[in-house]
UniProtKB/TrEMBL annotation:
This is N-acetyltransferase domain-containing protein. GO terms for molecular function: acyltransferase activity, transferring groups other than amino-acyl groups. SUPFAM superfamilies: Acyl-CoA N-acyltransferases (Nat) (SSF55729). PROSITE patterns: GNAT. Pfam families: Acetyltransf_7 (PF13508). Residues 10-150 form the N-acetyltransferase domain. It comes from Terrihabitans soli.
């Protein structure tokens, strides 16, 4: 896999109708191997959980050119900004795309004066990525780690 070139434009776009299926597939593909280490995988339950947590106005689809390569969901409250979901397609990972997305988001978060938070499964190697991006473990929530970027 090659690194993302400086010329490669990564864009975040609001959700369109067909994006739900794309996001669901990416979520199931990424979460099944991680979640299965802690609980028995129940696909119908996971699909239902996804549907309950999906908040289209807070979702952005990540594009490289015209191709959808990932998605994220943010929530902002009075006191913090939460990165609720962040997925990059497996074939696009380790190319600097996630870093490029966070490089775009971090100044916006910083300007808000609010800490950015997220949770990540303890067994998810994305934890190391988040640490490189300035997040630190602030606690545990069951099988997840709560991370904060101040």
């Amino acid at each position: 896999m090659h690194a993302i070139s400086r010329a490669e434009v990564i864009r975040l776009k609001p959700v369109a109708g067909r994006d739900y299926g794309f996001a669901l597939r990416l979520y199931l593909q990424a979460m099944k191997p991680l979640t299965s280490e802690f609980i028995e995988w129940d696909e119908p339950e996971q699909r239902e959980r996804f549907a309950r947590n999906w908040n289209a106005p807070n979702v952005r689809i990540i594009f490289s050119g015209r191709k959808r390569i990932g998605w994220l969901q943010l929530d902002e409250t009075f006191s913090e900004i939460t990165l609720q979901q962040f997925f990059i397609a497996p074939e696009q990972q380790r190319r600097g795309i996630g870093s490029k997305v966070l490089d775009f988001l971090v100044p916006i978060w910083r300007a808000s004066g609010k800490p950015a938070t997220l949770t990540v499964l303890r067994n998810n190697s994305a934890r190391l990525f988040y640490e490189r991006c300035g997040f630190a473990v602030a606690g545990e929530e069951g099988v997840k780690l709560r991370m904060v970027r101040r």
